[in-house]
């Protein structure tokens, strides 16, 4: 409008070039307005795409920032927990050291106080005066005199009592009778003790016999129970191994089913998530396409309206200019075809520019969609890789669990086999020891029997020799004169030596030594555990 005012003010009917100048200015203004609108439209599209890209970048940056914040929070929390645990342990160690140090200080303080008191007492003792020392020595001297006098009086009393005992006959007789009575009482007590010991020994022999028999029966019962227990243990072990194998097989089957179900569920979830993502992407693409088409239609309508409005404005301007001009003969402008051609070329360039901008916008949108699809594909691949890694870890954990179960079962079976072998070796050793003890007992019995036979034969030979010598001795005694105080006839028992009355004891079996083995239980007797076998049991 600023350019129209001087033109209208300087216009006159006697200047024919004013109309040409005015039309040129109007066309130039319309072209400038079109270029400004096209530039504004292209800048709006660019700003819109830039805002979309910046929004995506902001979202990615925000998500990355949230992940970083979460990771840093987890790390700080772990470090804080670790720091607190370290501080707690350090505080505990420091408090323990401090308590130990305080205890040592307390004991040292007590020792120092005791030493100080003792030192002060010693100093006080050393600071005694001469008078105090004299008094103390006099007191000590009096005590010693009293003690010596008491000892002298006691010694005099004892001497007098001894002298009285030696000089008094009745007292000596009374003392002698008392001593004889005490001696007789002591002998009676010894006899009673011996009788009680003899009875106790008989009771002990009976008790030992009963214990021996009970021990033998208990050992037989233990062996029987041990065999039954081992049989039941072997049966139970076999049942446990079978049950464990069945349980392990059932557990493996269940784990396999669970893994298959989990894999199927994960695959179904992945497929559902992928399908949902594809549907969302498809809906988003359709919505974006519809939005873009609506935007293009709206821009095309706006452009058509703008062109129509510009044409109407130009026509109205031309009509207003033509109305203001005076009637004159029409004169043809020589530059008007050239201006029309220039205007047509400008309109064509505007259309080409609009098409180019529209094509660039479509290419940018296509590029954005490709980038979005690429990100989606990368996310899908990452999810697939994570799921594959999770399944691989689950398979590794299942394989490891199976191997651990197999190893534990194998170790258990090996331990059971080792225990059985050790039990078999121990049983074999016990059987061998029992056989050896029975063999030793049998040999000892044979040796004792042989010794008894030899003793009997020697005793019979001695008796025969004495019986053969008896008539000769009688004849010799009859020939000799009788000796005073000795009978001429003696019984048959007088011919035997004194040791003949002890011969029956020689026929007994010798008592076994403490190291002799028991032929029934196979145990080695000891002086502190079991006494010698009684005579009733041996016979």
Provide a descriptive summary of the structure in words.
- This protein has 539 residues and is mainly alpha-helical.
- It has a domain at 141-217.
- It has helices spanning 4-9, 18-126, 130-167, 169-324, 336-479, 503-506, 535-538.
- The longest helix is centred in the middle third of the chain and has 156 residues, at 169-324.
- The model is unreliable at 1-19, 328-332 and 482-539 (pLDDT under 50).
Q: What oligomeric state is this?
A: single chain
The ordered H/E elements are HHHHHHH
- The helix content, as a percent range, equals over 70%
Radius of gyration: 68 Å
Number of helices: 7
What structural category do the secondary elements indicate?
Answer: mainly alpha
N-end to C-end Cα span: 158 Å
The tally of strands reads 0
Q: What is the beta-strand fraction?
A: under 5%
Residue stretches low in confidence (pLDDT < 50, at least 5 long) are 1-19, 328-332, 482-539
Principal-axis shape = elongated
Mean pLDDT: 74
Q: In this structure, how is the largest beta sheet organized? A: none
Biased composition (Polar residues): 234-248
Biased composition (Low complexity): 469-484
Organism: Salarias fasciatus
Biased composition (Basic and acidic residues): 37-51, 58-71, 128-197, 216-231, 348-357, 366-391, 400-450, 500-511
């Amino acid at each position: 409008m600023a350019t129209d005012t001087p033109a209208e003010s300087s216009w006159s009917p006697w200047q024919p070039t004013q109309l040409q100048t005015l039309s040129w200015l109007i066309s130039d203004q319309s072209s400038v307005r079109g270029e400004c609108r096209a530039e504004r439209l292209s800048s709006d599209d660019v700003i819109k795409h830039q805002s979309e890209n910046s929004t995506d970048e902001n979202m990615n940056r925000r998500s990355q920032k949230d992940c970083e914040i979460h990771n840093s929070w987890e790390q700080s929390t772990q470090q804080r927990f670790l720091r607190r645990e370290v501080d707690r342990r350090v505080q505990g160690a420091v408090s323990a050291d401090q308590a130990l140090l305080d205890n040592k200080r307390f004991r040292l303080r007590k020792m120092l106080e005791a030493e100080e008191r003792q030192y002060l007492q010693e100093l006080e003792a050393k600071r005694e005066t001469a008078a105090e020392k004299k008094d103390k020595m006099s007191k000590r001297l009096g005590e010693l005199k009293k003690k010596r006098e008491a000892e002298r009086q006691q010694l005099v009393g004892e001497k007098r009592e001894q002298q009285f005992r030696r000089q008094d006959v009745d007292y000596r007789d009374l003392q002698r009778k008392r001593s004889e009575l005490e001696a007789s009482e002591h002998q009676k007590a010894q006899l009673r003790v011996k009788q009680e010991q003899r009875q106790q020994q008989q009771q002990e022999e009976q008790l030992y016999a009963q214990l021996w028999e009970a021990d033998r029966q208990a050992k037989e019962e233990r062996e029987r129970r041990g065999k039954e227990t081992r049989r039941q243990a072997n049966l139970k072990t076999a049942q446990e191994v079978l049950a464990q194998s069945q349980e392990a097989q059932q557990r493996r089957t269940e784990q396999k089913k669970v893994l298959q179900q989990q894999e199927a569920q994960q695959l179904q979830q992945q497929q559902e998530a992928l399908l949902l993502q594809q549907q969302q992407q498809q809906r988003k693409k359709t919505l974006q396409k519809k939005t873009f088409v609506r935007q293009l239609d709206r821009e095309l309508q706006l452009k058509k309206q703008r062109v129509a409005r510009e044409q109407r404005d130009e026509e109205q301007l031309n009509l207003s200019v033509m109305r203001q001009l005076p009637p004159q003969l029409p004169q043809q402008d020589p530059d008007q075809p050239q201006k029309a051609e220039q205007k047509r070329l400008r309109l064509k360039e505007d259309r080409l520019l609009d098409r180019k901008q529209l094509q660039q916008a479509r290419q940018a949108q296509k590029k954005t969609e490709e980038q979005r699809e690429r990100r989606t594909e990368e996310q899908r691949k990452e999810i697939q890789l994570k799921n594959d890694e999770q399944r691989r870890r689950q398979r590794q954990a299942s394989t490891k669990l199976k191997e651990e179960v197999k190893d534990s079962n194998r170790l258990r079976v090996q331990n059971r086999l080792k225990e059985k072998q050790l039990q078999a070796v121990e049983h074999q050793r016990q059987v061998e020891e029992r056989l050896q003890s029975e063999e030793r007992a049998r040999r000892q019995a044979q040796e004792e029997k042989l010794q008894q036979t030899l003793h009997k034969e020697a005793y019979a030979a001695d008796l025969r020799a004495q019986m053969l010598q008896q008539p000769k001795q009688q004849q010799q005694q009859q020939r000799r004169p009788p000796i005073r105080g000795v009978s001429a006839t003696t019984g048959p028992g007088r011919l035997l030596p004194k040791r003949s009355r002890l011969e029956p004891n020689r026929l007994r079996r010798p008592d076994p030594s403490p190291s002799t083995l028991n032929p029934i239980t196979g145990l080695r007797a000891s002086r502190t555990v079991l006494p010698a076998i009684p005579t009733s049991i041996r016979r």
